[in-house]
Amino acid sequence: TAQQILNCSFSSWYPKFASATLKSKVIRPLPEEFVAYLNADGVFLPLDRYGRSYLWADGDGEDESGEDEDSSIPHFPELQTQIDDAIEELGGAVFPKLNWSSPKDASWIAVEGTLKCRTAADIFLLLKSSDFIAHDLSHAFEDCIAPVESQAALPARPEAFELVLRKWYALVPSMEFRCFVRDGEMVG
């Protein structure tokens, strides 16, 4: 059900298990303009928090093509400030994810080939390049079945999206595991 999906959202379980997992910061809700940016076609970076393009080659206000910056390029200064502050608070490097998924399918685009992010631009590039993130944004409840007794339609998306920044550790994927807890007992 949609409620089961919502129960797996990071903010639903993290407060209960914060002492047993990686230190994390949650930025919630994500601005709708940022969600629209993530959903937009193509892979491109927004302006930095100061309104500058990440493509500036010489700092003169022009991009590499020599043209003035396009005013249609998205700009999220408040979000970028929150991200920068969280990265600093978490030791200078983080692992990003949204409510449910990480952009692990996009690690190929990162400089180090990992999900290690040191800047907001690193995070934006991974999120924008990920099919897993695109699924969470547009199809999170797609395979849910409404309870028979319910007359309500399934939600198209959660009420709010969240950006989760987790302190970076170089974990060995073969040593990772998931556990499931029901009524305070580990069930699997």
From TrEMBL:
One of its GO terms (cellular component) is cytoplasm. Belongs to the CDC123 family. This is D123-domain-containing protein.
